Amino acid sequence: MNDEELHRVRNEIRATFPSKQYYGPITACDCDESKEIREELWHKRWDEIPTAFLDLTCSPTLLTPEAFQAFVPAYMLRGLDDLIGDRVVLEFTVYSLCPDAEPDKDTAKQVKETRLRARAKMMSPAQVQAIRSFLTFVAANAENRELLRPMVGAALDSIWF
After folding, report:
1. Res 25: pLDDT
2. pTM higher than 0.85, yes or no?
3. Domain ranges in the chain?
């Protein structure tokens, strides 16, 4: 792993996602897990989310597109803390950014891709590039990169361009 490249990707994420309090909708789901997520993220900045919460929730997949944009940098940076894979934040965050490699059903594939495109539309060009840098770095350096590469390739080609 190239420490200089890791540092560059981290700085790109920090520079392109402003650290500001988020006041919008957090999740559309009313389940208990989503209630806890709403309570924890309400009026927070992405850089003040506790690592224990990121490790517990594992990914930003339940978030609305607006909340996803506000909080995905926290998950990406936490994922970069563990390229070996002791925690699942990296893997699950990559999943939240990528279409399914082998979806069970065409409908499920379409739903996920529609959700991903809605998230991508919320991002500035610089944020899309930061996500591309994150995904590219992970696909080259993560312990489970062989598993992640096909998904990352599909995401770079069809979502984050």
Report:
1. 94
2. yes
3. 3-158
Chain centroid to Cα 147, Å, comes to: 17
Alpha carbons 135 and 137: distance in angstroms, whole number:
5
39: burial class by Cβ within 10 Å (0-12, 13-18, 19+)?
Answer: exposed
Sign for the pseudo-dihedral over CA of 126, 131, 135, 137: positive
Of 65, 63, 36, whose CA–CA distance to 52 is shortest?
A: 36
Asked if the model's pLDDT at residue 1 lies above 70, the reply is no
Q: Are 1 and 11 in contact (CB under 8 A)?
A: no
| CA atoms of 101 and 139, how far apart (whole Å) | 14
Sign of CA dihedral 116, 122, 128, 130: negative
Q: Which residue carries 């934040």 as its tokens?
A: 89
Instruction: For residue 4, give both structure tokens.
Output: 């200089």
Scanning the chain, the segments in alpha helix (DSSP H) are 3-16, 32-41, 51-57, 65-80, 89-97, 106-122, 125-141, 145-158
- Taking a C-beta distance cutoff of 8 angstroms, is the pair 65, 96 a contact? no
